[in-house]
Fold each of these.
Amino acid sequence: MSHLQQPVPPTLPQTRQALRQHVRQLRQQLSAAEQTEAATELAHHISGNDSLLAKQHFALYLANDAELNTEPLIKALWQAGKDVYLPVLHPFCPGYLLFLHYDRSSVMQINRFNIPEPQLNCARVMPVAALDIIFTPLVAFDAIGNRLGMGGGFYDRTLAQLPADSGCQVIGLAHNCQQVAAVPVAAWDIPLQQLITPAKYFDFR
């Protein structure tokens, strides 16, 4: 999907960091009521999507830094009998993620970014290519599917492992305010296939 990417401007690092800071501030300004409404709307959108609900293995994330809250969605997926997985910082391959099965009995720990993650248990690891849907967090996105993350590159490196013929759908989740006119693209960025906000469904394929 590299044809979606736009030319990299000369001031790429500065531009990306300024955009990242600006959009993070926008979502941090959302009130608790707005966050709750957005999370509820997201869960309703996805729960009512027959195509998505036909899948079984869903990777999500736990919200941090005013990201779109996934807890109502996780509960809805559990209620529908779906398997949910959360990212864990890879213990042996720095910069990569593992996805571990997550349920109400999961033992959680706080990682070095102060984000809760399931305690590592190799028996609960799901290979990335075996997931049906990976819902990814992000800082900003544009109308052609370019995604700006927090800058660590964890999702880009991990998603790059997906084979070209993988049936796994990568879907971004974001607040409405996180859409921007254009995301400055770097060579390592993995564009989104789809994205869902509380107000809209985007298909970039």
Amino acid sequence: MSILDGIYKLQSGRRTKRISSYDRAGFNKDSVPIGAGEVKEIARIEGAGIIRHIWMTISTSDNMIRRNAVLRMYWDGESEPSVESPIGDFFGQGWGQSYPFMSLPLAAAPQGGRGLNCYFPMPFGQGAVITVENDSDLPMDALYYYVDYEEHDELEEDIGRFHAHWRRELTEADPEDGENEGLLEIVPLKPTLDDKNNYVFADIEGKGHFVGLNYFVDNPSPMWYGEGDDMWMIDGEEWPGSLHGTGTEDYFNTAWCPKEVFMHPYFGIAKINEGETGFLGRTHCYRFMLEDPVYFEKSLRASMEHGHGNVLTLDLATVAYWYQSEPHKPYPKLPDRAGRQNIPLLNLHDVHYWRQEYRKAFGGGTKLWGNEWRTQRPQG
């Protein structure tokens, strides 16, 4: 069977339409401005239909606009958004940055990832509304956009609604052993027998299926961040649940601590901490479960360990994507603008200060190399 099968079948009861930012005066100013602090409604559609494609690009002097601007979507007259995310993260662009990204449902296209595209189908039965909030002190000088959709006479009863939700957490190291994770050979590795301290990327109520995750990790350590297992508790079941993974890189269909860009239509690593020591810095992983969605009848709690046993301090941000029946469980309040900003990148000066503290721990020796911890105990 081809992905193009069915494209030749003639259709009835649907009409193709578009809402865009084209210049209504007939000139070439094909964009809309959004003032600082303003919420702009970019699409309002009546009746039933399916959004098939969204494209947009932004011009502004705010270099963090992709975290400062917030995308929201509402289906069927609902008051709570089914989609709520910083605009960059939704399209697969972490940390307010712009870089190429390629997958089947989402892409950030040339130039330099500035062309933002979404191909997730988004059905609605009684209308749809899309807004963009410019949560910035600077104006969005120009937002260019297409919303391509189909009008339908009606939709079937069993069609789920598209959802996407952004979360972020600065995870905590183990209060007793720090960021040991069994790698520092100081204390034995602890077993993991529950998911209570995991990073939760989806907390869903209702009937539906989970279809994808963008995972943005900022790691303040040169050590590998990817030993954490993915865990899926379906319909209120107890740990270990119906699906239990073997490591973060395994969930993203890679292996053996990858550190290279690789973009498959369903999974990959779109950005790596290139040039940094070990795994220090920012990495963007993604997986779209289009062939293997996770189905649930009543609820889904999906989570990832931050290091084996949840021992690593990581700045984790995710966008989860799924379809479900409405109404959905309202999302936690989106962090304010300050709560969405980046933690500064660590640099060579920070690493040098760590070395100074290491010297102090070993008595201030002037010829300490850095491997003494393997055979000696620090003083104090």
Amino acid sequence: MPRTAPAATTSAPTRRHLLLAGAFGVASLAALGTLAPARADDAVWTEEFLTRAETREGFLVDAMDEWQVENAKFIIAVIKGHGLDEQAATITLATAIVESWLRNYEPAVDLDSGGLFQQRPSMGWGTYDEVRHKKRAVDAFLGLGDHSQAPGLTQLSPDYHQWGPGAAAQAVQISAHPERYAEQMPAAKTLWDRYAADVAPYTD
């Protein structure tokens, strides 16, 4: 899929807020505060967070916006909730970086693909809404989602610890550019090291 140049980090209001303000026309910038990740003080992952439409502007591991950070943390939380380890997390994170720059991509611009992993309903990954629901998308990628008929990581490469970097991700994604997953493994490892210790397992 085509990629645009990574977005620069800006002060408030953020570039994302300005883009959204343009998209919604007369909506005031003050109202855009409600578009921050819908996560309560007690760290509950809400349904709004799991399904909210987002834009995709770019990815730099040290210039991530609030959505990218929260999506990385959420992936780690789901991985831990399934009792899986760092290797599973880095494979999953690297895949989401490649496919969506850690944004829950809403428009179907590449055939019918969408969501964090650009999963396609026509290929058995779930419905239009399910591939854009973050928990279901992560579960499907892992091969642990009852809603998905497509095989995932734990089904295609249960011995993924023995696989080369990126190979396990490619087994699931069947990408035309398999080398891209290995390229993002260092960034994925950085995200795990940065956030894993402070993220509780998510099992809902």
